[in-house]
């Protein structure tokens, strides 16, 4: 299990350094299977905070702080009530709903991309924040909501990837507090050397992602973002189906 988490942390961090997201979407489904829903999401969230904090200094100049505020604050506000609702709903149903909504929402966003003007209003940012916050606390994946907004807003890739990092720090911090106090989730009790090993994987992934910057054009990067979001949605559906058993 430790080797699996190490490899996932490395791959997910490298992708997140390039695209701005992907860490939780790739890590959460596997962590949930290995550790159970509560501890799996908590572990994913802790690691996501570490990854984003490590990336912030190198991405600082590209951050769009206005968008961070309009998305990050609603996301943080949405987490506690979503956690309360999640504490009363069967986990399998949550995963199935999240997966289905993301697939539908992303499909609509892709259809809109070539037929409408960019959607950049405040209401879209606020709705994105609610979706990212709720998805993060309920299923450990807030990236798909951000991807949908990134598509319809035609957000430049460099700014998109950089701006997501402070948003994840804000959201994941509130998720950790809310899941612990409202849903009774706890962080897995792992030995210090395991945490050190995983942190090393995150650092190596960040270095690899940094080295890859500029070698892939923006259209390909955003294609990867969309693919990651769809992968997260499918994995959410699979996790929900497995939880039904």
Automatic annotation (TrEMBL):
Broad class of where this protein is predominantly found: membrane
Entry's Gene Ontology cellular component terms: plasma membrane
UniProt KW Cell membrane keyword: yes
Keyword Ribonucleoprotein: no
UniProt cross-references to InterPro entries, sorted A to Z: TM_pro_TauE-like
Source organism: Enteractinococcus helveticum
Cross-referenced Pfam families: TauE (PF01925)
Name used for this protein in its record: Probable membrane transporter protein
Transmembrane segments: 30-56, 68-86, 92-112, 124-151, 157-178, 190-208, 220-242
Membrane topology: Multi-pass membrane protein
Localization: Cell membrane; Membrane
Family indicated by similarity: Belongs to the 4-toluene sulfonate uptake permease (TSUP) (TC 2.A.102) family.
Classification of source organism: Bacteria, Bacillati, Actinomycetota, Actinomycetes, Micrococcales
Keywords: Cell membrane, Membrane, Transmembrane, Transmembrane helix
